[in-house]
Each structure stands twice: as C-alpha cells, then as structure tokens.
Specification:
Number of helices: 17
Strand content: 5-15%
Distance between the termini: 74 Å
Order of helices and strands: HHHHEEEHHHEEHHHHHHHEEEEHEEHEEH
Shape: elongated
Helix content: 40-55%
Number of domains: 4
Mean pLDDT: 77
Low-confidence stretches: 1-11, 14-40
Strand order of the largest sheet: 9-8-7-6-10
C-alpha cells in the first residue's frame, strides 16, 4: 500500500509536469494552403489567452529564444531592445511575482469577473518604489485575424526599474559558486541538496504531529474508556503524506522560477488532496466503529443500520469529492464534467432502476424503521431475525439458521410483521371436551378456568375470556383467550405451558375428557 501510494504521487507529479509543458506553445509550423478558411485559427504562439501569453514568454525566454519571447510584448522598441526587455521581464516574473500560472485566466476573453475590458491582471510585483500591477492586454490585429494577448506597454515601462532592484536571495549570497552555477535537470545543485536535507525533517515533523493529534483525539473521543481512539485514526503514512504536501506547497514559493513554482504547487495540491482523503476515510471508519460499540453497549442495536448506511455514504462522498478536486486541479472544466455525469447518471438510472429502487428502499427502511437490526419479523414466507440492513438488501436469519437476502425495494412494498415491537402475546386455544360431559361439569370447567385466568399475575385480566362456543357430533368446544404480559417469546411459552397444565388439572378434577 505504501509503495503503491508513493508511485501514485510520483506519477501525479509526472502528469502535472507533462501538462505544464504542454501549455507552452509549440513553434509555428507551416500550414497547408486552403481554399477557404471558415473561421480564424488560433494564434500559433499561444497568445489567444492571457495564460498562454505568460507561459509562452517564460518558456521562450527560458529556452534562450529571445526573438520569439519579444513577440509577447506590446512594445515599439527596436528588436534587440525588445529581446533584452523580454529577458528582464522573465527574470522579474521568476524572482518577484509570488504567484503561479494557475492564477492567470486561460479563457480567450480573459477574466470577465474582474470588471476589466480587454485587460487582465497577471499579478502584483512588490517594489521599494511602489508596487506595480502587471497587466496583459487584448490587441486587435485586423479584420479576419483573431485578437491576441500581449504584455501591456504601461506595465513594461516599469520592468527595467524592477530588474535593477533585484538582489539574489540571502541564502544564495552565502553559497559556493559551483552550487549556483551547476544545474541538474535545469535545477541548481543546491536546491536538490536542500530537498535531501528537508525530507528527513518532514518525516520528523510528521512523527511529532502524529503523536500530538493522537493525544488530542484520545482525550476528546476516548474519555471514560480505555480505547485508544486517536491512535487508530491517525496513521503515520497519511499524515506524513499530508506534511509532505504542505512542504511542497511552502517550498513552491521559495527561490524557484515561475514555471517550477507552478509545477510544485500543482503537485502539492494533488498530494494534499490524496492525503486528506486517506485521513478522512480512516476517520469515518473509526468513528463508525466507535459509534457501533457505543450502540451495542447501550443496547441500541436498531441504530446500527443507520450508522452503517451513513458511513458508506460519507465514504462514497469523500471519494467523489476527491476525484472532482483532482479534476479541477488538472484544469478540467467541471461544468462540462458535471453535465456529463448528469447525462450519464440518467442513462445509468434507466439501466439500473432496480438498484436505485433498492437504495431508496433501504433509506426508507432506515428512516421509517418498520424493522431494525435484531428485530424478529415475518416477511412474505420468511420468519427470522434481521441481521443487517444494507444499501441494496436486508439480510434475515431464518428459524432454520439460513440467511435470506430480501431486496430493499421489495421489502418496502411488502407486508411486514414485526414481533419484537409487540407489547404482549396472545394466548388463544380451543379445548374440545367429549360429548359425555354434563352441563354441570361444563359449568364447573368454565368457572374454574375463569378463576385461573383472573388470578394469574402474568395475564391481562381485562382481555381474558373463556366461552362455550360450539357443539359438534363428537365434542363440546371451549375457547380460551387472554393476553400474556410478556414480549419475550420463551417467557411466553413457559406461561402458556403453565396455563395448559392448569386446564388439564381442572379437567381431571371435574371428570371431563378432551377429545
């Protein structure tokens, strides 16, 4: 599990890097002649959006293609001066702009929510002579040619002054020259050494965080018990992953170029989301287990089905939200994604009507509670005890010790008899005496049975009755009806046995015989 997660994080970083590189516009390639062009093509330099302009300039200047980088400037300077200005702008963006590419609009019309027309703010650059707002402007190039975004001329006027203010970070001033000048994978050696030094520190911080969070959770949730609740929830690896993501996030703003900051910022977002999801799933599982133990100790087994259902729904929600966040951080249009999910959900709904019916049937069973876990009931032709109420079906342990799974959709529509909720149990028997019994003997039997029912402490005397109800060719039938004040069936059977033996004693004393 640990190795799989580590490889997943590495893969996420590679994907983010490839996606970041893919945002950089490719060099223009010759286009074949066409007879007619139905609509204008996008700008080959990627200047169709504010984000494309910023990424294009930084990428071109970093590759040393200053001639191409100059094409992203709204300037009338000579070509050589424009190229020098483009390089200074790249350095200022890398060293002074503490944002990422993600904060720049990637829409052709720019960010319309800022109230600016044909103008978007890239960021604010701090300066001792006054902060400078860096803008890109939408420039029209003529009829039939799509507009492009260029760094605004007003913002470019401040770039030479900002460039002169640049000073190397304080820690670079104390490093050997070879650490600064020797790159590996376009990154100076000292930054790789810093990562190697800080990674152990990250795990040490994660260890202390684990202990502190465990102690807090044990104190809050384990009060009055011997259960180490926090220790079960807080696992070292999810928390280490979270601390690692926070480290990447913090490091993405320290001494790195704009493109590198963007890359590590996205990697940190991915790692943090995965770590939070992992911790959330563990928290949900342990809270559910903790709640179930409390319900069992309090003899509230009927609420266990609700706890299980809520647990499953929360876990599914956590996974879905994590997937949506990862899609959002990958620049996927969630509006289109949610619309697609809605259409797909309708299609799945038509194809899975029974599954959805069972799902809502389970929700209704848990909310209305006609039966609860542990209840004895009769459903259709099955009589047994409810063991679990799930999202799809309800499991019933029958009297023959078999398990029957009844779909919740059917269970919600069936007649259901719950024996556990009864407040008393009916004692109802018919006694057939032989025809040789006289009327006096019959009167004596009726009177003694009535006295027995009225004096018995476990019977509801108001409902007790004994009547002579039928004469047949071979018997005289007496009906005995009473409610036993018991809800436990074995206890009822003991009382029933006592009453029937009492009836037999009465028949022996009166000289009557049952047939």
């Amino acid at each position: 599990m640990k190795k799989t997660l580590i490889w997943f994080v590495v893969l996420a970083g590679v994907v983010q890097l490839q996606r970041l590189e893919a945002q950089a516009p490719a060099a223009p390639t010759p286009q074949p002649a066409a007879a007619e062009q139905p609509k204008p093509v996008e700008d080959p330099l990627g200047r169709s959006t504010p984000k494309g302009t910023v990424v294009g300039l930084v990428t071109a200047a970093k590759q040393g293609n200053l001639e191409r980088a100059a094409d992203y400037l709204q300037s009338t300077l000579a070509p050589s001066e424009r190229q020098a200005l483009a390089e200074k702008l790249r350095v200022v963006l890398d060293r002074k702009l503490l944002t990422t590419f993600d904060g720049v609009s990637d829409k052709p019309d720019g960010d319309l929510a800022d109230g600016l027309t044909n103008r978007d703010q890239v960021g604010v650059i701090e300066s001792g002579g006054g902060n400078v707002d860096l803008f890109v402007e939408r420039v029209e190039r003529g009829k039939g040619t799509p507009p492009i975004w260029l760094f605004a001329a007003g913002s470019l006027q401040e770039i030479p002054r900002l460039y002169l203010e640049l000073q190397p970070p304080w820690f670079e001033q104390h490093l050997p020259e070879w650490m600064l000048a020797t790159p590996w994978l376009s990154v100076p050696i000292y930054r790789w050494l810093a990562i190697l030094l800080f990674l152990p520190l990250v795990f040490v911080i994660a260890g202390f965080s684990t202990r502190a969070l465990t102690a807090v959770l044990d104190r809050v949730f384990g009060r009055g018990t011997r259960e180490h609740f926090g220790r079960k929830i807080v696992s070292a690896w999810p928390l280490r992953l979270l601390v690692l993501g926070l480290f990447f996030y913090t490091a993405s703003f320290v001494g790195l170029t704009l493109a590198t900051r963007t890359f590590w910022h996205r990697v940190s977002q991915t790692v943090i989301v995965i770590a939070v999801c992992w911790l959330s799933l563990r928290l949900i599982d342990e809270v559910a287990e903790f709640s179930l133990r409390r319900l069992e100790r309090g003899q509230r087994s009927g609420d266990t089905a609700l706890v299980r259902l809520v647990t499953r729904l929360l876990k599914a929600t956590a996974v879905i939200l994590t997937g949506l966040l990862l899609l959002y951080f990958s620049d996927v249009d969630l509006t289109a994604a949610l619309t697609g999910l809605g259409v797909g959900g309708l299609a799945i709904g038509f194809g899975a009507q029974k599954t959805i019916e069972n799902l809502f049937g389970g929700i209704m069973l848990i909310s209305d509670q006609p039966v609860k876990v542990g209840d004895e009931c009769r459903v259709g032709g099955f009589h047994g005890t409810v063991e679990d109420i799930g999202l799809r079906s309800t499991r019933i342990r029958t009297m023959g010790r078999t398990v029957v799974s009844v779909p919740n959709g059917q269970l919600a529509a069936m007649s259901l008899e719950n024996f556990t909720v009864r407040d008393r149990i009916l004692f109802h028997h018919t006694i057939a005496l032989g025809r040789q019994a006289t009327a006096d003997q019959l009167r004596s039997v009726l009177a003694q049975i009535r006295r027995m029912l009225a004096s018995h402490p476990a019977l509801d005397s108001a409902s007790a009755r004994t009547r002579f109800i039928k004469v047949t060719g071979y018997s005289l039938e007496l009906e005995i009806v009473a409610y036993v004040l018991e809800t436990d069936y074995p206890a009822f059977l003991a009382i029933q046995e006592e009453l029937l033996l009492g009836v037999m004693d009465i028949m022996e004393t009166t000289g009557t015989v049952a047939v």
